[in-house]
Amino acid sequence: MAFDYEKYIRPGKLPHIWCPGCGHGIVMKGLIRAMDTLNLKKEETAIVSGIGCASRLPGYIDCCTLHTAHGRAAAFATGVKLAKPEMNVILVGGDGDGTAIGGNHFIHACRRNINMTYIIMNNYIYGMTGGQFSPATPTGHKASTTPYGNPDPNFDIAKLAIGAGASFVARGTAYHANQIDKLIAEAIQHKGFSVVEILDDCPTTYGRRNKYKSVVEMMNRLKDVAVPVKAAEKMTAEQLEGKILTGVLHKVERPEYCEEYAKVIERAGGNK
Amino acid sequence: MSKKVAFLQGNEAAAHGALYAGCKFFAGYPITPSTEVAEVMSAELPKVGGKFIQMEDEIGAMAALLGGALAGQKALTSTSGPGLSLKQELIGYGCIAEIPCVVYNVMRGGPSTGMPTGPSQSDVMCARWGTHGDHATIALMPASVQETYDMMVRAFNLAEKYRMPVHVLPDEIVAHMRERIEFREPGELEVIDRAAPSVPPAEYKPYDTKFGDVPPLAAFGSGYKFHVTGLNKLPDGFPTTKAEYVQAEEERQIRKVMANVDEIVDFEEFKLEDAEVVVVAYGSTSRSARYAVNAAREQGIKAGMFRIKTFWPFPDKQIKALAAKVKGFIVPEMNLGMCSLEIERCAQGKAQILGINRVDGEPINPDQIVEKIKEVK
To answer: Which of A123, A163, B20, B162 is the most exposed, having the fewest neighbouring CB atoms within 10 Å of its CB?
Structure first.
């Protein structure tokens, strides 16, 4: 029997705003399957985003949804989670929103290890504003504001999250659709701040400037560069050149912020 | 039973006033000269099961504040000029998404870093117009430590009642001076909680004007599912660009304040009955003004003071009425004429307006005001 996505979709809110060929819809379906797997209650789940194409996702999902300002999802979500630790809090957004204007909130959410899951759809570009380069745009690539090629080095978002202290970091791709829900479900189940980077595509503003002839070609590129972490263990450095690791990249146990704050309340005598 | 009294500074009193009002959530970022509020809240909130978080920056603090408020808490942040500049982005979010919260901003010099430990009253326009777009503003101006405590309670009441961010704007003198203060007994001051939805979750719309200009706000995690955005929105909270909705929503968000201006605007009239010269003052400056009015009267001048307690909405009606019957206004303020502009707008040329303006980090003293009173022709 086909999976019933509609039970998590808000009636009357589709079609979505995303362009044909965009991978955001694939990620949304993965999120819905993950929510269903974990049987998350809609009224006890907050989905929080910033600004951009990916950040429009919460509007389609029938939960407590918060479409905040550019880059601020992690900070708003921190407030929601600290005020109501019993809620499931899931953040969604793009690479520019999360790692440029929202970069400070992102690294500090990682550092606090607050029990939330951040799904970053990395399509290497600012899509909604028409294709300006983001911190994830590879050096040398074309964007509407790098007509001669991007001079900036780019972030490795997963490494950034690990470095900043996220206790669970995974990476998938929009091509490997069947893996997305499993990564997201594992991230949500992990206690602490979990980051799932999904390598995505933007045929409209990134692909056409960087000589991708079709969405299929962009998807095939995701297929070709992705190497599961297990498989990578058996590969040489030479074989891994130009490849991107996928799967669960990092998983450690660390004190969780809301639980630590509960101890603060205990020490202050606030439970009396 | 005798009342609990203490010798506190304005910032400490502000924190205790917030706690009296039922504040259970604080998000902030350290900044002089407001940090004592955060320090007191970090110690007191966990004692009552509340939450304190020091965020990574001022914007993050405002964001966490709004998140906590949406999760149903009465929420406070404290900051000062440079922090208020940074918070403007999300103060606007609080205005359009209609999220109740209190922003306590201690006024120090500026622009930019200015004089971090010096007093100022130069954030009044920043509080009013700092965030982009049309919006209503409520801003309260305490002049003593006790009043700071009491005004915090009122600020939360107004935020909850009108479902919006409310500013409290002490100058650095009020924030840091120490005075005797009486803690209020439970029930002594009115405490207002936001209206809860009266409809079941399936029928709930967060901006349903069927319930008036201030629709009830449900809390995340309370069984209600709804959407919140910073985009112009429909009554159900989802974005729209339909002209008739956008216009009506923006007008409603201003009307909810301006239609209640008589209830919101608070002020003190001091020796105004026969006054020919009126000192319009606010914050610590009003303390010098009160002294000056008495001194001028001893010299035979019929002086009085109109003390602004609610700066926004501005007391237009009261200033207009005074302008029609007095010779002149003296407007002492620790900025280069921000309140004077509002007085000019209200007086419409009917009375002389003389400003006393200091931005050198020194308070305006009574003698300066007395001398200026004498200049009114």
So the answer is: A163
**C-beta atoms of B64 and A66 within 8 A:** no
Q: Give every residue of chain B whose pLDDT is below 50, as ranges.
A: none
Length of chain B: 377
Please calculate the CA angle B21-B23-B28 and round it to the nearest 5 degrees.
135
All residues of chain A having their beta carbon less than 8 Å from the beta carbon of residue B99 are none
Domain enclosing residue A162, as ranges = 21-268
Q: What is the pLDDT of residue A271?
A: 85
- Facing residue for A82 by CB, picked from B47, B60, B68: B68
* Within-domain flag for A11: no
Record: contact A265-B49, CB cut-off 8 A: yes
| Distance in angstroms (rounded) separating the CA atoms of residues A234 and A215 | 31
Return the minimum-mean-pLDDT range out of A1-15, A133-147, B180-194: A1-15
Q: Is A270 near chain B, with CB under 8 Å? A: yes
Q: Which residue has the tokens 């007093």?
A: B119
Task: Find out whether B145 and B178 touch, Cβ atoms under 8 Å.
Answer: yes
Residue A214 has a pLDDT of: 96
In angstroms, what is the C-alpha Rg of chain B? Answer: 21
**Domains B5-182 and B266-375 in one fold:** yes
pLDDT at A27 over 70: yes
Residue A169 has pLDDT above 80, yes or no: yes
Cross-chain Cβ contact A79/B67 below 8 Å: yes
Q: Whole-angstrom Cα distance, residue B120 to residue B337?
A: 12
What percent of chain A is modeled with pLDDT above 70? 100
Kindly report the CATH class assigned to B266-375: alpha beta
Q: In what order do the strands lie in the sheet with B227-229?
A: A226-228, A244-251, A168-173, A194-199, A117-122, A88-94, A45-49, A64-67, B227-229
B235 touches chain A (CB under 8 A): no
Residue A14 lies in a domain: no
* Residue A100 Cα to chain centre, angstroms: 14
pLDDT, residue B243, reads 95
Task: Kindly state whether A75 is in contact with chain B, defined as any CB-CB distance less than 8 angstroms.
Answer: yes
Tokens of A266: 């205990």
Contacts of A59 in chain B (CB under 8 A): 227, 229, 238-239
Per-residue pLDDT, B1: 59
Which phi and psi angles does B19 have, rounded to 5°?
-65, -40
For residue A46, list chain B residues with Cβ-Cβ distance below 8 A: 220-221
Q: Do A79 and B238 touch (CB under 8 A)?
A: no
What is the value of pTM for the model shown?
A: 0.98
- Give the list of residues 6+ apart from residue B340 with CB closer than 8 angstroms, or none: B331, B333, B353, B355, B357
Contact B43, A265 (CB under 8 A): no
Q: How many angstroms separate the CA atoms of A98 and A82, rounded?
A: 20
Domain B5-182 has CATH 3.40.50.720: no
- Check whether A272 has a pLDDT greater than 90: no
Report ipTM (2 d.p.). 0.97
Q: Give the gap in angstroms from C-alpha B339 to the nearest C-alpha of chain A.
A: 32
Report residue B10 as tokens.
């304005």
**CB-based contact A65 B67, cutoff 8 Å:** no
- The DSSP 8-state label assigned to residue B351 in this structure reads S
The amino acid at residue B18 is A
Query: For residue A217, what is the domain's CATH number?
Result: 3.40.50.970
Portion 186-215 of B in contact with A at CB < 8 A = 201
Count: domains in chain A? 1
